[in-house]
Amino acid sequence: MTAVATREATLAAEPTHHGIARVTKSQWFSPAAAVVMFLVALFFIPAFFDSFWIANFTQMAVFSIVAASAGLLYGRVGLVSLGQVASYGIGCWVTIRLSFGTPWPFPIIVIIGGLAAVLVGVLIGLPALRVSGLYLALVTLMLAAGMEIVLNNFKFANGGPGFKGVATSLSDIKPTRRPSFALTDVTYYRFLVVGAFVMFILASLLLSRKPGRAWESIRQSEAAALAAGIDVTRYKLLAFALAAFMAGVAGGLYAGTVPKGMSIDAFNRQSAIFLIAVVIMGGIYSLWGGLLGAFFATCLLKFLTQNVIGHQFWTRFALSLFGFGLLVNLIQSTRAAEKKGIQA
Amino acid sequence: MPGLGEFWPYIIQGLAFGAMYAVTGTGLVVLYQTTGVVNLAFGAIGCMGAHLAWSMLGGSLSKPTPHAEGWRILAYPLLVVVCAGLTLAYGICIAPLLARRDPLVKSLGTLGLALLLLGIMKERWDTSKPRAIELPSKKFTVAGGVVTTTQLVALGFAILVVVVVTIFLKQTATGTAMRAIANDRDVSSLLGVPTRRIEALAWLGSGVICGCVFLMLPPLFKSLDQGTLTWFIIGALGGAIVGQFSSLTVTFFASMAIGVIESVLTPFSNNFQFMSDFRKMTPFIVAVAAIMWISRRRTVVLAGREMR
Amino acid sequence: MIDVVELSVHFGGVVSLDQMTVQFPEGTCGLIGPNGAGKTTFFNVLSGFVRPRSGRITAMGVDLLAMPSFKRARWGLRRTFQTEQAIEKLTVFENVATVYEHSDTGGKSGRTAAVEEALDFVGLTDQAQQTVRTMGAKERRFIEVARAVVGKPKIIMLDEPAAGLPDAETALLGRIIRSIPERVGATVILVDHDMSLVQACCDWTAVLDFGRLLASGPTAEVLRDRNVMRAYLGTEEVAS
Prior knowledge:
The structure holds three protein chains of three kinds. Chain A is mainly alpha-helical. In chain A, 74% of the residues lie in helices and 0% in strands. Chain A has a single domain (3-14, 24-308), classed as Orthogonal Bundle (ABC transporter involved in vitamin B12 uptake, BtuC), CATH 1.10.3470. Chain A has helices spanning 3-13, 25-48, 51-77, 84-101, 106-128, 133-154, 185-207, 210-220, 222-227, 232-255, 269-282, 288-307, 311-340. In chain A, α4 (84-101) runs parallel beside α6, α11 (269-282) crosses α12 (288-307) and α12 packs antiparallel against α13. Chain B is mostly helical. In chain B, a hairpin with a 2-residue loop joins β3 and β4 (305-307). In chain B, α1 packs antiparallel against α11, α2 (42-56) packs across α8 (195-221) and α10 (232-242) packs parallel to α13 (282-294). The termini of chain B are far apart. Chains in contact: A-B, A-C, B-C. The B-C interface holds B 300, 302-303, 307 and C 49, 69, 83, 85.
């Protein structure tokens, strides 16, 4: 769901003068496509695929939010953050902990998880967003590494006592709670699809309005943005906060997909690097890129595993494929920019 | 509260790891200044070299810590050759394709390389099995604490590298050429500096440094763990960031400090459980502090080119 | 009126602006000088990208150097750049609207009217919904001017707005620039190397040389000034 279409919708809604409000066909394609996609995901997929594939599409739905969050930071604001998995992990940890510690409804604790991620994101962002993009990337990479250490130490709650909520004896371990309206795998999958749709709409709304325009100005030239009156630091922080919220919420939603014994594999340093490769391969400018990248990383990979070569080879070698894919992508975009004669 | 005598082994270990951070940092800074690339694949390349060396030493499931016998001792120099070769190969074949992009994109390219190598390593060497490489090492007692040869060599090597590189950059023609390129690549090229050759040299040098570091790291860590080795680079970034990727002296001292602090916090984990893990966040905390200091006066980016 | 008092800028060992003191009157003012004279540096100081070693700039009773960069723009300081910075992926309308919605006198209400007025002023009304990426260099320069005049700007800095434009467009741009103070109420400072443009638009001109004010006054007089000619041509023998 690109921002362009919703932007057009906004302009058309304003009282217009003759000649100003002209809408081109291609721009109306996107919200329609998004709604169709949503409906297909919600109804068609559960009807057509078995539980194995539903599980994969579930992973894809969650991962697409994280991928879109990293993609929008890079593609729409020009900020490379290698630390989105940190927000993902925080959201997941907080949601699981609260699911055991409180009786609050699941959607609420997922949102709290998102907000916790925002808190950490903004704290790091305050200094890091005022220095060069390279330093931002490096510091966020270190943040991801740091978060892996924290999660390694804290472990995920599983019904035990204390702040961390980790139970030591097997008998005390309880499964993570799911929302009462989404207890089965299929209903939880639908819940996730709705959640992903809501996150994408949130991003689109911001992208199609004043923040999105400010971000595009910043992306092209910070100096020109400042000269246009844009508070660059504040808008960068806003983007950072949005991305952290999206990834944090995704983490909370992810919590419900693993009944017991959440591992930190999805939140480690390797995943941080893997994520940026996935995002760049899927496409950073459009939010669709998040979906495409997630598709590559989950369903396509599983498909290859099932049907092409033996199991373990692909899951391990997948890293190499994505590394290669990332390089190819970067080289291609360099060639394309050189052809156009612009400084990429 | 542990007495000073108890700290000694941790200080030594800290100096050794700090030395490894410092050498890595030096390699990172010189390469960045010459080519604009932060080689984030440094750890992956080194890890690959170390694993190949392990296999060549005769490592296997039944022999997780192989000992060099006869011709197998060539595995050690092979480690350095492999690291240098891989780094140089990337520098000659792939880096030029991204040469016109900004440093951030060029560094993302090295992440691609890192992933590529990680996948191969995961496939070839099962991560769940323990492995180790040892270097012939004696133990000494210095001022009441135990020191191993490896630690001394690591420390000495770091000092040597910093001194040699600094002299090289200031006094030799090639070093001056490197500084010229770092300052302004296009102008240097116009002045007749063989930029491609110099850059290749910088990549090669960085690769040799990588090999040497990863010759010493597995013995210092007492294990050959893919995660720890590959992502060693993240810890080394701390020192380089404090030095703002330009001052080798600052990078050296910052790296040493980070290594020592990280290590010295270990005994506190007896009293405070969380310390044992969080001391590993020292590079990150130092880096954030450095960024806060650097950002106190904002820099403005004029459509991609940094204005200082 | 813009009051510049003893403005000095040092880049390492290079003195870019040397105790520059000048008062720009209302209307359209020219700022000329040979390459390296400090014109763009002055603009960068005014924009807030370069911190001066000393000096003060006040306009309409406001100490401009005391405000952070983007706040000056919100107050009403607008600028065009030598390499045009119209935002490629947005439409012409959105480009102009962005500046309006980040200004102190802007905001949500009256946005459409203000943008339409600015587009009408530069003659881009029909291209309002076009994406800038599809437009040529000429039109982009006019978009830049539209971004500079939208709403209620107070000071407009034009940095070589006619660079690369053919004569016909330059003349059109000149007419537009000349009418800015009257229609928009802002003081304009125009930096350009095209003397015919400067003469056509600006009643008053200041000349910089080596970071210092060399001459200032009515444009025709300044352009005939011997010191000015010497600064440009290096010799007193000049055809008048």
